[in-house]
Amino acid sequence: MIKPFYEPEAGDLLYSKQLSEWWKTIDENKTGGDGVAAQCISVTTRKMTLRIHRLISETDHESEPGGYFDCTVQVLFCSHILGHHISEQLEQVLNGFKNDNGVYSLYVTDFTKNQALANNDKWPKGRNGTVLKIEMWDAAASRGPSLKNKGYYRLENCRMLNQESYLQAKLVEPKIRELSKEDEKDMADPRFTDLLKYAIPCFLPVVIC
To answer: Which fold is adopted by the domain 56-208?
Structure first.
């Protein structure tokens, strides 16, 4: 007579017992022993660092995030040497110049010193380490010629770059706002008023070779 139910043998019973004990151990590990399932989730978080306003003295290519920063600066005089006479140089005073590749080179300062900036023996006395060269690309390059000598500006989304032996900055987006001593909102900004304490009303020309 064929029985409708399976009758386990001794080996089957032993295997089933071992399997039951193994699963019980697994289940206790999952629930913490209290019968409540505990789900373990591994979460990898990415640290987000917002771009911040920085002084030139405290900025380098490793500043978070990725060397990007905002700054409040005064545009400096720049000039090409077209002759040996001071009068000829003064006639060609510019705030910057456009390169053959369309990049506009701008020179600015916030009067703080960063020893990693490029030096030039033709900077006015005491200005080495305070003059930041900014290469303006794309949309920002078209704004370069309109910036005023000795003018005050807020530049956003600049990026400090390591040029092996010195630092210089790059600006691609035209996030540039002129600041005015006649504007109450601007004068309420301590970063602008701090700049004004050191601003030079008649900056000597910087000669670019």
So the answer is: OB fold (Dihydrolipoamide Acetyltransferase, E2P) (2.40.50)
